[in-house]
Amino acid sequence: MKSIVFFNNKGGVGKTTFTFHLGYALERAGNKVLFVDLDPQCNLTAHICDEETIDKAWSEKGDSVYKAVEPIIKGAGDVKLIEPYKVENRNIWIFIGDLLLSDFEGELSNAWTQILAGQERGFRVTSAIYRIIQEFASKNDIDYILIDVAPNLGSLNRAVLLGCDNFVIPMIPDLFSLRGSQNLGRVFADWIRNYYTSKQRIGVSKLQFDTPNGTPKFSGYILQQFNVYRSRKTKAYERWSSQIPDYINEYVIGPLNATDLKILDLVLTIPDYKVADFKNYHGLVPMAQTSLKPIFELTSRDGVIGDHTRYVNDCRREFEQIANNIQSIIK
Ligand SMILES: Nc1ncnc2c1ncn2[C@@H]1O[C@H](COP(=O)(O)OP(=O)(O)OP(=O)(O)O)[C@@H](O)[C@H]1O
Ligand SMILES: [Mg+2]
Predict the structure, then answer these.
(1) Cβ distance 48 to 24 under 8 Å?
(2) Residue 146 pLDDT greater than 70, yes or no
(3) What number does the ligand 1 atom closest to the CA of 39 have?
């Protein structure tokens, strides 16, 4: 069982679309997959569930990720176990997202101060979402847990990162995306180091509940190509994409290496640190969103005609390869 989060401070880099497709591809390769939507915008949820399902999860007795942490927010106790939604006839589950999840940010921010002060409650609150994921995933023999987050360096994302086994950075080869990745390594290294030393200090025996190690492995980057227009596969694109490995080296690997914790042993085995190329699928992406299916499962009934059939088949082959690669790197 491995959890992976796709993380970038820059928005709109295709995190959600990629996470969704990778999850379905991993399931087709024989794995049990659990998605967790921890972006309060709920785009991943909207990609998988119909409105009726989401409405039910948000109702009073429903099971959304907010419902899990609601007792903590309201000062009424610890995290509440919730059931994920199972996709019909598939080995795919999702913990349904919720716009109200942003209410948890403040609580997590206080919890961080408590962690640094060596207080047990800080660990309890910070590990809340981690614990509901672990509980379900271990009881149900989940192979891959894929977590989707919003593009920011807030306290919710800090708790998610510290609760993950692996993180991957999606990159668009342009000035903004490279700039957006410059502070990632430094911020992550800070979080990891602080959590690690605070946990050492308080001692595991004081924590009567499951807490994450807080040492997620950096597992490479994904090169997103969907903003590259056919007519403009420009020099600029090649210039920026060729700079990515150097950026990763300097701004991500460098600061993480300085923590002296074992979080780089995976990435250093990956050539140029790249785990996947995510191609431009143009109009097939909105078609997949409307049909609640990945591109590689779209058929003529979903509106795929003519040339599109070829793109659907290309996408299937590409994601089979991506799933293989991820499975061989993250075991
Ligand atoms: N491979 C692709 N080919 C074409 N369009 C894509 C591709 N991937 C994503 N898109 C489009 O780009 C937009 C952003 O994608 P997505 O929502 O996956 O990004 P994100 O990084 O999750 O965004 P956010 O930071 O807001 O969560 C969407 O409108 C989506 O339809
Ligand atoms: Mg998203």
Answers:
(1) no
(2) yes
(3) 27
CB 159 within 8 A of CB 129: yes
pLDDT for 164 beyond 50: yes
Which ligand number lies closest to the CA of residue 280?
1
Per-residue model confidence (pLDDT) at position 234? 62
Q: Which ligand is nearest to the CA of 172?
A: 1
Give 83's DSSP letter: P
The upper half-sphere exposure of residue 320, i.e. CA atoms within 13 Å in the direction of its Cβ, equals 8
At residue 228, does pLDDT exceed 60? no
| pLDDT over threshold 50, residue 189 | yes
CATH 3.20.10.10 fits 2-329, yes or no: no
Model pLDDT, residue 231: 47
Average pLDDT over residues 95-124: 97
261 alpha carbon – ligand 1 mean position (Å) = 33
Of 9, 17, 287, 316, which is best to mutate to test ligand 1, by the most ligand atoms within 8 angstroms of its C-beta?
A: 17
Cα radius of gyration (the chain): 20
Q: Which atom of ligand 1 is nearest to the CA of 17?
A: 18
Task: Work out the angle between the directed axes of helices 104-116 and 155-162 (0-180°, nearest 10).
Answer: 60
Short-list 275, 217, 265, CA closest to 245: 275
Ligand 2: distance of its center to the CA of 81 in Å?
Answer: 25
Ligand 1 in reach of 151 Cβ (< 6 A): yes
**Distance set, CA 138 to CA 34, 102, 135 (Å):** 11, 27, 6
Take atom 10 of ligand 1 and give the residue whose Cα is closest.
14
Give the span between the Cα atoms of 267 and 105, in whole angstroms. 30
